[in-house]
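call fold(seq) -> tokens
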Amino acid sequence: METKTVMKREQEEQSSQMSHSMQLSSQIKKKTFTSSDEEASYGDYFPIISADVMSVKEILNMENFPRHRTWDILKDTLAADEEYYRDQWTMFGNEAEKLEVGVIMSQRLLRTRVDTLALRRQAEKKKSAHMAYMERLSQKAPDFPIPLRAHTVWEGMTVKLACTVQGCPPPEVTWYKDGLPLRMSDQPWNYSLQQKYGLNTLEIRRCSPEDAGEYKVIAKSLLGEAMTFGTLVVNSYRGAVAGSEHWQTRGLQLKEEALFGISFPPTWVKEGDSLTLQCTFTSTLLPSQQDITWFRDGVQLLQSSSVDIRAEDSSASMTLKTAHKEHEGVYTARLKTYDGIQEHSAFVYVRDASAAVLGGPASPLAVQVSDVNKDYVFLTWQPPSADGSSPVQGYYVERCEVGQAEWVRCNVGIQKMCYFPVSGLKEGTWYKFRVRAVNQAGAGRPSMATEPVLTADPLEYTRTMVVKVDRGRKITITKDELEGQVKAPFPPTDVHACEVSDTYVVLSWTEPDPRGREPLTFYVERSVAGTSSWELASLDVVVNSPRFPVFDLVKGKQYCFRVRSINKYGVSDPSEPSQPVSLGKPQAVPAPPHSVLAIRDTDTSVLLKWQEPKDKDDIVGYYLYYSETGKEDWQTINNKPITNTRFTVHGLETRKEYVFRVKAVSRAGNSNYSDQSQPIVVKSAINVPSAPSAITLLLCTGSEMVLSWRAPAFNGGDPVRGYYLDQRETGMEAWREVNVKPAKERQFKVCNLTSGHFYQFRVFAANMAGVGKPSEASDSFLCEKWTMPEPGCPYDAEVREVRDSSLVLLWAAPLYQGRSPVTGYLLEISQGDQSDDWTYVTEKPITDTHFKVSGLQAGQTYRLRVSAVNEAGVSCASLPTEPVIAQTRPGTKNIEIGVDDDGFIYLGYEANEINDESKFLWGKNYTEPIDAGRARVETKKNGSKLTFTDPSEEDLGLYTVEMSDNPDLSSSYDFTAEDLERLKELSWQVRNPLIALKSGWQVEVSEKGVVRLWLQTESLSNNAELRLIFNDREISSTPHRKINFDKAKGLVEILFDQLSPEDQGSYTAQLRDGRAKNQTTLVFVDQKFRQTLALADKNRRDLLRKSGPYFQEFLSWSVNEDCELVIKCKPTNTNKDTTLNWFKEGVGLTKVEYVQSSGISKLTVPQVTQKEAGLYKAVVSDGRGEDVSTLQLLSDEYDKLLQQLSKQCALSASQLKIQSTAEGVMIYSSLKYYTSYLKNSWYYGEKRIDQEARMKPGSSMDMVWIEIRNPTDNDKGKYTLEMFDGKETHKRCLELSGQALADAILEHQRLKQAAIAEKNRAKVTKGLPDVVAIMEGKSLCLTCFIDGDPAPEIFWLRNDREIVDEVQFTITKEPKCSTITVHNVKMEDSGKYSIFVRNKCGSETADVTVSVYKIGEKPPAHAVIMS
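ret:
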């Protein structure tokens, strides 16, 4: 679209009203002036002027000014007030021309000034850059080209110590003496220091012995420091002053730079979790290294709210607070070094988070927003790698306004392709978008949301232009200012389809020009191609931007579209129709890749390559998948499409076999899986071996040398196939090849040497991958015949069987034995990597060429060496072994000894690390090979077995095994005579096996009375055989006796429907299964048979009995906590007609309780006496039958009841208590019930208390006691009550302390006095009847017996008044008796008569009621008739 601007003068505010009436057009292109080093920018503007201004345009040489198509329209629009606007616009045009000319002149002048300033700035910038570059080139760390040197002078002489220092920037120089800074101010007359042109001179005048010592100069700068030393020795006539005897100069010493140490490996993180990558450095970061930069796929990561980058002293880290699939890729940490940069990279895998629904797909990724308009955006994304339980059917697009939490779905139906136009958005609103994949299980997890997007007019900037003028003023020119007179809008132009898919078409058009100031919207109309019938396509939709997606089109039809502009003044004419448009064909998913190839990489990774399909235009990347061979358990490798056709897959398990396959990814979805790769075992790729080491001279004859060397530390993943040697004379540069054919052993004889010459050698190792690097040159060996008496050194010292506390050392005997044979070997050990502190392992020489070193400290590092011994002495030591750590490797296994399934004795070893080329090397006593006639070796997978043919004492000894390509995997076993004897016994058992019995013969009786004899063995095969022998004859199944044999379960059973006496005897089962056999016998006779027969008969009777009502629980008795006897039973299978009756000795019992809820019937006896003994019977019956239950509580059963009752009584006894009485003190225990069957005894301390005068035991129904009469303080102590229930003894104890006893005695004395007083008190011992009756006219005589000491006084009362009438009443008083006689009783003599007795101890009154009745009347019924 053409860029259009309108210029307006800033000084003339009033001219803004004139710009609404006319439109002027111009196509002059104005260039915005910039400096020559800046990019020029252009803007097109079309000023709209009237015809009267054309003369001004001609003055400016604009003769070719084109006429605008709006010219005629404006003429008609301004016809009404043409005169007024013509004058105004003429004036405006002239002013605009003047301003334009001024602006052009000002811009040219400004251009010149800007160019001048830009050139000056550029020159200064280049100058400063060149100076900085030259400065960097000239920078140099401090150094001493001429160091200090040592001086020796006589006392009193002058000496100058001088050195030359270099460095840029110039370093700071400090002098030291004996480690202390040298201060010139201390002795200015003696010391003089000069520094000029890098020459530093220290002059010491008149040297004295105090000036002697070590002088040091240190030069420091930002790039490092350097030091030089010099010693000054001052000799005096009395002797020399000791000083330092050496000098040393340290060269360039830069601060140690940090390098990568332990850094992050390939990492896996779950989607949505945080990710932290960390790397450590070998030292603290220098100030220049603090800026650690991080990259993902080559794009630098910066500190933000989601990325946290940190660098500390010796580590750096990068943290993603929330990891998404978009964050998968290669992460790189970059470190600055002196030589440039050092990088460490690793791949970070982002795994899928848990599915939103069970079986749902994973989340899409890489959601991108493009073509942003006022109410429209276009989204694209990439499909997920994991479909879930079913293929992905399509996608849901969701949007969310920034600041709100609600996500709204944008599409109603499922969008199948990975792109979608989103319309209907709000103008000027910030939005975020995300996508969900959908399959049959439902919608999966959402993708990562996009960055916020603002919906706005993308061409808004083209309608505004800012022009800078002099003095910093700006003129803002907007096109809307001069388009204000446009009312009815013009139609849009260039209607076309910008996006076509198989489900929708996106229309695009150009806004009308001029547009006018009023906001525009649009109507979209459509018509089937070839017809003139137009319909509204944007029904109920307000279209604000020049984009509109149409979804409801019919496949196979072509449509034409046109658009109308709308503003508040009206609707424009329709635009020109578009070209015919139809829905596109569905985009097909790409073809799958092919030729997937897996290549060995490392022990945990595989390099994967594949070929892309022929049609690769729409492919955005590839997804990779792996599975263990044969499992079909496919796992996703990457969740972000890989754009290359090769990828290193990490995180695989060593030695496991995998297959791989690939999918191509496009916007239409994922392709089908490629064909599987060939299976590959994960292990390191084969490389050339590393260099051999430790070349040793074993023998020299004068013209020949025998050399040995140490094998490479790393064989490259393939066994070393041979070695090549080079030689040279010492001092020569050129090497000469020694052998053309590779040496198979690590020992070689070099011939044709010149005696007396020195030679050096180097060795190459070769494997399948090629020849490795050479070893370091050996020491210079003199070619001279050996004649020394001592032997040569042993060689090939190697370590095996390294454990936490021990190891085994092997070596080879020296080739040169000296003047006498080698008699033994001395072993030395050193702790540490480089320690020279060697100690002997044994005190005496060892005769073997192997030795187990014990007593090591776990985790410590050791080296060992060996010396040979003969009669002449000890040889030089062998080369030390490589440092070895005393530590058992994880997964280390030892040789196991056992017997196999065929009965052969074997030694077995299993290795946890093995290659295809690995071999198990068996040996005896570390040196002897295995005799193939006595044992054979079998290897399967990662294990090997040495099987003895016919082991004997000849086979005893130490057996060893090691891996051919990894001697660290080794073990040994000492096969002893005890092992041989034990394993031979086990071998015989294996070859003559017994069928194991899980259970011997068992006898069971079912509820129906069926008898089952059974036994069970281990599981048997289908070929197993069974013979059953009964009383020496074989039996089989009969109708009476059924025999079952379940071989799978090993179950043998004999079933008797009705056991009879004829079935008594012995039963033998003879079993055979292949070589295994066994037999077992059941002796089924005598008591065992009789008991089984009785039980079977009983169960059959019970079965018959249970056809009607029966007792589920028979009569039984128990004693409850209240010491009550409870007899109960429980009938079942009852109905409404069932009756239950209890009897004792044939007499019915009525006090029987029946609990309906539990169905239990019971009889409770509160107190058990002898009468409870007897025969109890319960009968339950109805029309179906009856059942009887009996219980005999007689003899032993009754004794058992009494014992249980006694036990319960004893358990209810309380703790002993004390109580005072008038007779003494009573110690007692309360019981719920006491029976005489419970025997009790009292103890005082350990002594039993028998019946005596002072202590008297006693008991009642609820109490047991002992009474201490006339207690004293001597009675305190421990009292124990023992209660024996017939089986157990129950104890209760009381510690009668002094205070408790004193209180009890005091209370006893009080009660005793009260008892004495009660005894002597006046009382009526034999009283009167309560009521007496006497007939009128008779005499009444009442007599009372009294007692008391002293003799009491006696008074007779009538109606509570003393009787004094001696005529009618006669009273006699004797010491123990008193009588009153009433003469001639009358009716009025009726009433209450009382006798009152008293003495000093007390008194008492006895009453009698006298009732007088007349002759012929009946006396009262309750009265005593007196005659």
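Residues 1-71, 239-253 have pLDDT under 50 and may be disordered.
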